[in-house]
Write a structure and sequence with these properties.
The protein is globular. The termini are far apart. Helix content is about 35%, strand content about 15%. The chain is an alpha/beta fold and about 550 residues long.
Length: about 550
């Protein structure tokens, strides 16, 4: 079947609200919107299973307010961890509205069974840079428990359609995608997205919507070593940027201090909750070092401080990793109860964490910047909202406070939905803003006869990941950033040429998104010469030693 013929058979899908992404932020928005059964909501996710997102891999927990706690204390901790760059208004919204949503949505509606004490009361954990114990958890698989229950609720709603294996290619914006180029469109407005449906005919289809919520997650996979799953490759950031949305704070990429440092365990997160429960960091020769870097906080210092401390110890002394000891602080039975996932994973790799320390290294973890979004999730593009990790609401500043990401996704997903409800004069949504299919061109496939070469895609993706890791990683310099931009700019040109003559698949779409996201981060890092939070500029002469998790010895 020719490209032209396939294009003529494509029919647009129309919906009141299109949600791109199915993590806690997208799910929370859909849950609120679906209360009106007349409103039609469509969720698209590139994954095979709707539960597959960064949310699923969140181990530590979700912040709320614990005993002897207050919104004011939580705001103070958020602002302190953000290194002076957090937006106080956003922090206050999170601290005041978030805990109530945890109770209403997660506990009461979704029935998430958070861990409790023997007396039946909720068990609160404490993590790095928190002044109080306020983190709810479900063992060490909190995100998985939350998203499983939210998806189950959505699947019961007849007005919610979840489309899996559907990869967003580009946002549909006017005037860029308007059939009438002479008509004046002010301001730039989003009317849905071009979505590649991986199954069946494997084609790009127009999804037209009155409002579009971008909840596509983060970009950890643009780095060689990361705690993120394969889908976190910057899709949402790249699409919003190309559509003309404002992007801010893109230089602030948080590196988690502790991921498992064995080859078969690459990218497996060792939750910050391990240190919250008394775990301590040691060098391989047994020296406890965190008090030297953060005397006040020790092992519970903010993530950027701990990650750089580990990085410095490894570079300075040539260590392949450092050690995280929890068995000295907890009984074997308690470790297996509190951290069953971590215990099982490590045991499979020959590490019994009830008897020996865990070898750990830092890895890219969370994107603190993103698409600019206000208190209600509005972006600078009309009818486009951004929520969750793809958005920058100002909460995280230069460094995210542990376990606030799930809460932000829940709060801003709900707030964006409430704003859409409020804007719907007819009681449904922004239905009057849904453009006609005749106004939007079909996806043009003519000239894309070549099959996507998996070897080229894999090699180009590896080049992006290694470039970002070595030149735009934990420690950055002017020389390394300049090299990164030269290499990425050249690669972007090659990928664009490849993309224009090749039949689409998910991997090729992701490659195009990833190189754009990498350029955005590298350019922001080069522009900002001030070290702050998780953006650290080394202005010393000479290149710093770059350690590679690929060189880690087998244990």
């Amino acid at each position: 079947m020719t490209g032209a013929t396939r294009a003529t058979q494509e029919h647009a899908h129309e919906t009141d609200v299109l949600i791109i992404g199915c993590g806690i932020a997208g799910a929370a928005a859909a849950l609120r919107l679906s209360r009106n059964h007349q409103r039609q909501i469509t969720i698209v996710t590139r994954a095979r299973e709707p539960e597959e997102s960064n949310t699923r891999y969140a181990q530590g927990g979700i912040v709320t307010r614990g005993e002897d706690d207050s919104a004011e204390r939580l705001v103070e901790d958020i602002l302190a961890a953000g290194a002076g760059l957090s937006l106080p208004l956003a922090a206050r919204i999170l601290a005041e509205d978030g805990p109530e949503l945890v109770r209403e949505v997660l506990i009461e509606q979704a029935g998430v069974e958070f861990d409790r004490r023997p007396n039946g009361e909720l068990a609160y954990g404490r993590e790095g840079a928190h002044s109080r114990a306020r983190v709810l958890h479900v063992g060490d698989a909190t995100g998985r428990a939350i998203i499983k229950r939210l998806i189950a609720l959505l699947q019961e709603r007849p007005n919610v359609r979840i489309v899996t294996r559907a990869t967003a290619v580009d946002l549909i914006t006017f005037p860029h995608h308007a059939n009438d180029p002479l008509k004046v469109y002010e301001p730039i407005a989003c009317h849905g997205a071009y979505v590649f449906e991986q199954d069946g005919a494997a084609r790009v289809r127009r999804y037209l919507a009155g409002a579009t919520i971008l909840a596509a997650g983060g970009l950890g996979r643009i780095f060689r070593y990361t705690s993120n799953p394969p889908g976190a490759r910057g899709d949402g950031l790249a699409m919003a940027y190309r559509a003309g949305a404002r992007v801010i704070n893109a230089e602030y990429v948080q590196f988690h201090p502790t991921t498992l440092a064995v080859t078969d365990g690459e990218g497996f997160l060792i939750s910050e909750a391990v240190r919250g429960e008394g775990g301590r960091l040691y060098t391989p020769d047994g020296r406890h070092f965190m008090d030297e870097y953060a005397p006040e906080w020790g092992d519970l210092a903010p993530r950027d401080v701990v990650a750089r401390a580990i990085h410095h110890e490894m570079v300075e002394h040539g260590y392949p990793h450092v050690l995280l000891d929890i068995h000295s602080a907890m009984s074997a039975e308690r470790i297996q109860e509190r951290f069953p996932t971590i215990y099982a994973k490590c045991l499979d790799l020959g590490i019994d964490i009830t008897r020996q320390p865990i070898p750990v290294v830092p890895a890219a973890h969370y994107f603190c910047g993103g698409v600019w979004a206000d208190a209600w999730g509005h972006t600078t593009v009309e009818n486009l909202y951004a929520v969750g990790e793809v958005a920058c609401t100002g909460i995280h500043g230069a460094n995210r406070l542990a376990s606030t990401s799930l809460l932000e996704g829940l709060a801003w997903g709900d707030r964006a939905a409430r704003d859409i409800v409020r804007a719907g004069a007819d009681g449904r949504c922004l239905s009057a803003s849904v453009v006609r299919a005749d106004d939007v061109p079909r996806w043009e496939e003519a000239g894309t006869e070549e099959a996507a070469d998996p070897a080229l895609i894999w090699r180009d993706m590896r080049t992006i990941q290694h470039t970002m890791w070595h030149y735009v990683g934990l420690v950055r310099s002017a020389r390394r950033l300049a090299r990164a931009l030269r290499d990425l700019t050249h690669l972007n040109q090659d990928i664009d040429s490849f993309y224009r003559v090749t039949r689409l698949n998910d991997a090729l779409i992701g490659l195009r998104h990833s190189v754009q996201a990498a350029l955005i981060v590298a350019e922001a890092a080069q522009h900002n010469r001030q070290s702050r939070g998780c953006h650290y500029r080394d202005n010393e002469k000479g290149a710093a030693v770059v350690w590679s998790a690929g060189d880690l010895p087998a244990l």
